[in-house]
Automatic annotation (TrEMBL), chain A:
It holds the Pfam family DUF4249. InterPro entries: DUF4249. This is DUF4249 family protein. The lineage of its organism: Bacteria, Pseudomonadati, Bacteroidota, Chitinophagia, Chitinophagales. Keywords: Signal. The keyword Signal applies. It comes from Limnovirga soli. It comes from the Bacteria. Residues 1-20 form the signal peptide. PROSITE patterns: PROKAR_LIPOPROTEIN. The keyword Signal applies.
TrEMBL record, chain B:
PROSITE patterns: TONB_DEPENDENT_REC_3 (PS52016). GO terms for cellular component: cell outer membrane. Residues 282-360 form the TonB-dependent receptor plug domain. Belongs to the TonB-dependent receptor family. The lineage of its organism: Bacteria, Pseudomonadati, Bacteroidota, Chitinophagia, Chitinophagales. This is TonB-dependent receptor plug domain-containing protein. Pfam families: CarbopepD_reg_2 (PF13715), Plug (PF07715). It is a multi-pass membrane protein. It comes from Limnovirga soli.
Amino acid sequence: MKKILCFLIPLAFAISCKEAYNVPSPSPPTGYLVVEGFINSGDGPTVITLSRTTKLYDSVDIVYEYRAQVSIEGENSETFALSETGNGTYTSEQLSLNSNEKYRIHIRTQDGKEYQSDFAAVKSTPPIDSISWKRENGVGIYINTHDPLNNTRYYQWKYEETWEFHAAFPSSLKYSLDETQHPYAVEYRLPTQGTDTLIYKCYQNINSTSITLGSSEKLAEDKIFLPLLHIDPGTEQISVLYSIHVRQYALSRQAYLFFDKIKKNTEGLGSIFDAQPSDLQGNVHCISNPSEIVVGFVEVSQEQDKRIFISRDQVPDWGYATGCVEIALDNNKDSIHKYGEDLMPTMPIKIGPFNSIVTFHAAPRICVDCTLRGSNKRPAFWP
Amino acid sequence: MKLCRFLYFAFALLLFSLTGQAQTSNAPLISGHFTQVKLAQLLEQLEKQSGYRFYYDTLQFDSLKIDLEVKDQTLQAVLEKVFKNTGINYAIDQQKNVFISKGVVVQTALPGGYFGNTGEKRKDTLIVNTEVEDRKDETVNPNIALLENKLFTIGEVNSANTGGITVAGYVRDAKTGEPVIGASVYIENPRIGVFTDQYGYYSINLPKGRHTLLVQSIGMRDTKRLLLVQGDGKLNIETQSEVLALKRVIVSAEKASNIKSLQMGVQRIDIKTIKQVPVAFGEADVLKVVLTMPGVKSVGEASTGLNVRGGSADQNLILFNDATIYNPSHFFGMFSAFNPEVVKDVELYKSSIPAKYGGRLSSVLDINSREGNKKNISGSAGVGLLTSRINVEGPLIKDRSSFIIGARTTYANWLLNLLPDQYKNSKAGFYDINLNINHQINKKNTLYLTGYLSNDRFNLNSDTAYNYGNKNISVKWKHIFNNRMYALATVGYDHYQYSISSEKNPVNAYKLGFDINQAYFKTHFNYNINSKHTMEFGVNSIFYKLHPGSYGPTGKESIVVKETMQAEQALETALYISDKYTVTPDLSFEGGLRYSMYNFFGPYNLNNYAPGLPKTEDNLLGTTPYEKGKILNTYSGPEIRLSGRFALSTTASIKAGYNTQRQYIHLLSNTAAMAPTDIWKLSDPNIKPQYGDQISLGFYKNFKSNTIETSVEVYYKRIKDYLDYKSGAVLILNQHIETDVVNTQGKAYGVELLIKKLTGKFNGWISYTYSRTQLKMDDPTAGDFINQGKYYPANYDKPNDFTFIGNYKFSHRFSVSLNTNYSTGRPITLPIGRFYYAGAERTLYADRNAYRIPDYFRTDFSMNIEGNHKIHQKTHNSFSIGVYNLLGRKNPYSVYYVSENGVVNGYKLSIFGSPIPYINFNIRF
């Protein structure tokens, strides 16, 4: 229904109907415990992140919870301890859980309060059938999965996008700096006089920030075909090679509703007919003080994942443009000082006697040094 | 034909006297030769030559033949000659009117000191000396047609009535034959008065003797009839509409009716007033004007959901000629579903709800449409930026039956095409059609047929298509048994549906449907026992059939499973009786009792919950199937309607009322505004009916000969078992909806002030309301508390509300209107903190409705320009030009926080955030 909002704007001949707004009244200090993560019944360790809620406007981004004691408890009273691994994370060894048992998380925070989640049954996650994509002006990426037993029904996905991108201009040159650290001439970066791939070829990596949920509740088969995300045309993502790694989790209905509520509360607001936000009740409770708010839903699940690649060749007429422009400069101090101080040299234009560089091209740093926007470390999975 | 002749003269006289044409001061001289001419022909000639007007009874003189020869004589001399020795008298007044009568002399001037007692100075007062002995109050204005001077003898002389005598009849518009609704029909001494009902029918109890019956109504000229009441009888009264007025006319807008009427908390607005109020896009809007009344609020601009005295939007019974309209809005709530060309007036009952209405807690909004013109085919059409409308009306059988048909449509698609590419596939539109036919079978029986059809569809960027509509039809029969009693019988069928479909993703392509059907039967009797008691009684019965949701696949690839929620059916029956008891002219009471019974029927599979535990999915034990026709459960109870009035003086009164209400159908919504996708739910064993009661007190005072009305009303209201949603409720296609809603208890109170001036060059009203509405959920057996079981403000709790509506008429062709509205911002749930989860910052919510959005303030301006007022031209044109939200204030509709790219941002959303100019062209034919 969000579209109604945008639709109403021009209808009302209004220039803008949405503007930034901050409530003048200060929000109270909260500091409630936030528990994120799941008990991993599949391969890999269990990672639980503990943090605290903060004021609506606060200088800190995330307040992690340190020095807590976290353990996984089974109904049959087996326990597995998790050890603190920095930034509020608590990690276990690879667990071998009994799929007929129920498990929960138990937390004792530094201030002595005890928290635990409700016991949850082990849910197995069906593998991802495929990740497909198609051109829809840009590219739409879809998830396909199914559970032949028809009993998964509720799904959550997280994804990580990685792409290779190149600087707008390759560079074989760098400035020579005088004692005051000002450039006075250019020199080759490498003895081979070739281009420096370390600043030309980079990788960018982002994690999903929205909660992606799916349900086959109303379908005859437990079969999912849902859009995950849309890549706008001409963007850098598919300027060279793009990859998406999708992780899939089976959810219980309660967990699905919990995540859906977070999603509605934080992503789905702003139009006229939206549901109003509501308070959040997960399955983690404070035993020491039952009325204390705790945010979090801890499930016993496993992770299934899949990765696909999309290369530039597969998306003809992608229309990527860097918007970068090179200028030509004389290789002397005055010229560089006057025009080239904030630029980076790229390639020589005119070579003089003794292989000296007479004139060269230069461009803004962001167009030359890809490490300003990404990492030049090639990911292990990159082909 | 006699009547027609009279009417002709009535018109002529009005025109003549009001235009104030300059006449030469020298009396014109008359010449002519007439042999055996009828008096009528002669007088016609004399009118032509002299410029004087003649008034006489054609029947009385139709046998008279005249021979006459005159040359350059004055009129007086001519008349002297004509009527010599005939026993016919004539009288000439200063307005050049000549009254011809047999045996009686019409006096055109009063004896000196005649009004000595009252001290009033009146000029040109005329006395008609009739057969009856002279009476001191027998004074009438000479500028009113002879009808008003004629003595109507009602009933037989010998009729042996001991108590009061009933005079009944219709008040109709002389030009169109349409009934005049809500006209005040009264005598002044003793003070006895009634109002015409929605058929223009009145029935008044009068003592024997001579009376001056006065008739006043909005938009019509005041009129009166001289009665000699001897026994029960009928009197139909035709009144002139204001259109004839070329000079200043004082319109008595229900003069003093607010003082005299028993009801309190009633607002009546006629379409003329509605059309003067500027609204967005210039389309006269019934509901938007109702919103300017004290005690009526809405959550925001794109909403026509009304909140009356702290009630929710579903607690209003919206009746359009007896048909229940479930969704009264078009186009995301920007227009109301009622075509202004067809609407006659609107009545809103906020506190003393008559016993004949029931089924909703807060209010009854009764919208009456016009009856068609019974004399000529006529119509009107209007063109606006977004909508066009047309209506045609006329007689089917002249003076007996008429029709009116109105239609509206929108062409907003052109606007959508101007939008950015991403919306190029959007479509939105609506239409509505009204049809009314009425037929007078004979003097005692009249039939009315009403049909209404509306449809809205919108499709934003071809993703999901929405569609909703109302369908209503009803037939009503009015039977007059005698002057004291009449009955109405109505049968009808109402239908409301919506559907949502999406075909974007072939695997999930679906269509979701919802509908409500109700068939009803109503009988209503009105029995005028005597001058002290008027009784009303009847039966209402509604059969509901609700399909709470069907969800199914569309297209071949779709693997959506068809899911149909089981239908709900119920019967609501109510018996009612009420009596209006006039103790003395100053003190009167009305007491009503309505007993309503509600049966919920099978076939139905009822969810069973563990007793004493909250209704949650965990406590759902199973279902019990019930066969078709089997009653699952019955709710019933009395509803009390009491009101009383005490007149402190002729211009002031005090009123008090108490009433209780029950409501068996609920709107479930967790959105702030009334959304087209909200669902209705019938009460069943798991969902209790709502119950409310209200006590109110009002003080009314009129100033400046009743042209300025003021009132103060206070009320306190309790609401039981109002359904609010639980946090994170799923309302659509929920097989166990009772687990997602919760019964709340509410209280509402407030004070409403109104100053209204509906006459004069400057007219309008100012209203101010202070009110609170709070709800509470503290029943531990019903689940988690909302806000720890404390009172929390309802969504529409806006304590301060101020409205000013003003119109200034520069001339009859040009007027300007300004309205201003201020209200406290509505409550909203805002985050109290944030946290980091699933890769992004998230907001933390706690107490519901703990904050408020900024206050609301808006000013609108419009100008109405009318073409000339010549009555005999083919079409009449008018323009309205205006600006909505003149100051361009960005009034927030909501404030919300979203997580965008991992960061929480706050936004304020305004719907009409800048001035919106509009223009409308109307044509009447």
